[in-house]
Amino acid sequence: MNHTVLTDRQICALMRGERPLIEGLPDEKTQVQPCGVDLTVRAVSTYDSRGAVDFDNSRRSLSARTPLDWVEGWLHLPAGAYHIVYNELVNLPDDVMALAYPRSSLLRCGVTLYTAVWDPGYSGRAEALLVVHNPLGFSLGKDGRVAQLVFTRLGDSVGNRYEGRFHGENI
């Protein structure tokens, strides 16, 4: 089986298809990288309650959140954990998965990003956990590029595509 990371040319070709790989990029020329696409921040929220997960999701509950208001296009975030929503919409084919990584600029500022696996068949606007480790905080501009989404073509289409609770969410 041959698993390959998609190149910028392959990504651009898949963006032009009937079901575009990724939509809503504020600036395609800036965001498409040699082996991925930079994702930008649409919204940031604080966590206001604890959440819960279990084996069968019967008692799963998501943490309550409060959106933060951009002030002149900026958020000044003290150290802590934040929920972010990306601008871009992703539509993964049945033979492509994706992983998002923090851009190195975040790491150089004492900030990181955590995401989950983006399974084949996923379609929607994704979310992530932004953690400001820097005790002096971090300033984030609206539409700031925080992550690079890397796409991997699988050796075959999956038998069970993503059909989870968050499928098709356009937050």
Structural overview:
With 171 residues, the chain is mainly β. The protein has one domain (4-48, 60-153): Deoxyuridine triphosphatase (dUTPase) (Deoxyuridine 5'-Triphosphate Nucleotidohydrolase, Chain A). It is 10% helix and 42% strand. The strands form two sheets. Strands 1, 2, 3, 4, 5, 7, 8, 9, 10 and 12 form a ten-stranded antiparallel beta sheet that branches. A hairpin with a 2-residue loop joins strand 3 (32-33) and strand 4 (36-47). The protein is globular, with a radius of gyration of 17 Å. The termini are far apart.
Percentage beta strand: 35-45%
Number of helices: 3
Order of secondary-structure elements: EHEHEEEEEEHEEEE
Q: Termini separation (Å)?
A: 36 Å
- The number of strands is 12
Give the proportion of residues in helices. under 10%
Rg from Cα:
17 Å
Major sheet size, sense and barrel closure: 10 strands, antiparallel
CATH architecture: Distorted Sandwich
Mass-distribution shape: globular
How many separate structural domains? 1
The CATH homologous superfamily is called Deoxyuridine triphosphatase (dUTPase)
Text of the CATH class: Mainly Beta
Mean pLDDT: 92
The assigned structural class equals mainly beta
- Uncertain runs with pLDDT below 50, 5 residues or more? none
- Provide the CATH topology: Deoxyuridine 5'-Triphosphate Nucleotidohydrolase, Chain A
What layout of secondary structure does this protein have?
Elements: E1 4-5, H1 8-15, E2 22-23, H2 28-31, E3 32-33, E4 36-47, E5 65-67, E6 74-77, E7 80-91, E8 96-102, H3 104-108, E9 111-114, E10 123-132, E11 138-141, E12 145-153
Antiparallel strand pairs: 1-12, 2-7, 3-4, 4-5, 4-7, 4-12, 6-11, 7-10, 8-12, 9-10
